[in-house]
Amino acid sequence: MTAEGCVRVAAVGDVHLDADVLGRYRPALEHLDGKADLLLLAGDLTRHGTADEARCVAQEFGGLAVPVIAILGNHDYHCDQQAEVTKVLQDVGITVLECTGTVLHVGDVRVGVAGTKGFGGGFAGACASEFGEPEMKAFTRHSRELAERFGVALAELECDVRIALTHYSPVPETLLGEPLEIYPFLGSYLLAQAIDATPGVGLAVHGHAHAGSERGTTPGGVPVRNVAHPVIKQAYNVYQLSSVLAPA
Ligand SMILES: [Fe+2]
Ligand SMILES: [Fe+2]
């Protein structure tokens, strides 16, 4: 926490670790406690979602001086080893969320983080619906169900300020730079609806859109930050939560 009482949130996503990437982030993380109060990992932690790659993530991001909270991304599901990937991360003290939340104490401030991978479907005026073929219904239903459960997790946090952590984007602004044609595979307005439904969300962090833009805002006014490593181009960004620290 800063002298002014700001909570400092470090975040990065899409680190896509494998053995050849080991060590890229660690030097910048060694003294993180002087710069941030917690670190968020916004999914796509591995390249193909293998347990071996997860062990690289554990080596790179485990045992830090600040709490580390992660969600998985689509790459982390690729080999159907997401349960093992999760366990490897948990074994080194990383909190892994999926439609769940956790509360940290930073000074006197209770900081709540709810997370989900989320899914696609698109944005208002150009989105998928649960209509037609079973495959289309399943695609849209997956997105809706994750957003709904994520919204409940966010609302149930007993804290002073909330942070929303997703892999897919809740808004189209942070996708700027990506081809318009793939927006429905990069995020869903349902995530923004879930974020805006609960008061006291100070920050929404996501990844997934490697060619997107860093900054956006939900329709309800919550700052959104795309922290995909190819976007922020450094080991992590730090965001300060100050204006939203009034008790919820
Ligand atoms: Fe990625
Ligand atoms: Fe992704």
UniProtKB/TrEMBL annotation:
Residues 8-211 form the Calcineurin-like phosphoesterase domain. One of its GO terms (molecular function) is metal ion binding. It comes from the Bacteria. Keywords: Hydrolase, Metal-binding. One of its GO terms (biological process) is lipid A biosynthetic process. The keyword tRNA processing does not apply. One of its GO terms (cellular component) is membrane. The keyword Metal-binding applies. This is Metallophosphoesterase. PANTHER family: PHOSPHODIESTERASE YAEI, TRANSMEMBRANE PROTEIN WITH METALLOPHOSPHOESTERASE DOMAIN-RELATED. Coiled coil: none annotated.
